Amino acid sequence: MKQTDIYVLSGFLGSGKTTLLKEILKKEKEIGRKVAVLMNELGKVSIDSNEIEEDIPLKELLGGCVCCTIQDEVEAQIQTLLMEEKPDVIYFETTGAAHPVETIDGILSPIFADRLRFKGIITVINGKQWIERATLNAPVQQLILEQARHASLLIINKEDQLTEAEKAKISFELQSISPHAFTILTTFSKFPFEKLLEMNTQVYDNVQKTSIHKLHLSTFVYTFKKMIAADEFETFLRELPDTIYRIKGYVQFHQAKYPDLFQYSYGMPLFMQEDMKMPLNMVFIGENIDWKLVEESLNKL
Ligand SMILES: Nc1nc2c(ncn2[C@@H]2O[C@H](COP(=O)(O)OP(=O)(O)OP(=O)(O)O)[C@@H](O)[C@H]2O)c(=O)[nH]1
């Protein structure tokens, strides 16, 4: 089955995500991959989408954020792109207010998770804003920190507005916050494109494992090949490390006619009966997890 790469472009409002996207699209054109774009803006009217050339399939998500209000819409748009456009790669520009864990959660639907290869998060940091971040309110500071911490590729943008001392300070700080990310200072988000292509995905058997970077957030998609026992699944859940933040997907228990939709968020499990057949994919999001061990436990169910 063809798998489509998906990248998330993250970064606070005005940091340079659209500028980066335009830069990426130029490079993609040179290497000839079929690209689709998904844009999430908080306002009701899209401004940035005018910046994208007309021949690139573009879906817009307006008036809400992937991290809270419009997850169903994100799912529908990605599914449409996969079915109608069959792109090699999707770039998802998130709102500046989106949290990375919730964004990944929003894009990895169990309905099509086996057809997507999540390549990681590219975060754009506005250099000046980083230096002056103590003046921002606490939740915004925390959000910018989270966006930096979960990046695989960290673009410190607006280099032209920084002094040499500021450049050294910010590079040092961000490298220590996100030691596994490739970090680069840029002006107008111009960066070495090969670093994006090199972002890491490992595939083994029918299981997809994506390292966003080695020690932080990562995702794992498991496909059940058979029905399982509910009590064994509950035991499996009890034994999970508490750095698995989110699980969602379909699981079919013995004697059940249709699968259950299973949702698990920060330790709280929830089952909902479906009334039709669903692909038995389950998406996991966690931090510092050895997914091979999780996979082995799932295989034993
Ligand atoms: N001086 C300077 N300006 C830049 C640089 N990169 C981008 N800009 C400008 O910063 C502004 C914001 O850039 P965008 O790419 O729209 O930022 P964004 O993150 O997509 O913004 P939102 O959609 O509001 O979240 C634009 O006016 C850009 O032209 C840079 O390296 N230096």
TrEMBL record:
Catalytic activity reported: GTP + H2O = GDP + phosphate + H(+)
Output the InterPro entries linked to this UniProt entry. Answer: CobW-likC_sf, CobW-like_C, CobW/HypB/UreG_nucleotide-bd, P-loop_NTPase, Zinc-reg_GTPase_activator
Pfam families with a match to the protein in the record: cobW (PF02492), CobW_C (PF07683)
| UniProt KW Chaperone keyword | yes
Gene3D superfamilies in the cross-refs: CobW-like, C-terminal domain, P-loop containing nucleotide triphosphate hydrolases
Keywords annotated in UniProt: Chaperone, Hydrolase, Nucleotide-binding
Looking at the keywords, is S-adenosyl-L-methionine present?
A: no
Q: Where is the CobW C-terminal domain?
A: 217-301
Q: Which domain of life is it from?
A: Bacteria
Q: Which family does it belong to?
A: Belongs to the SIMIBI class G3E GTPase family. ZNG1 subfamily.
Q: What is this protein called?
A: GTP-binding protein
Q: Which organism is it from?
A: Niallia hominis
Please spell out the taxonomic lineage of the organism that makes this protein.
Bacteria, Bacillati, Bacillota, Bacilli, Bacillales
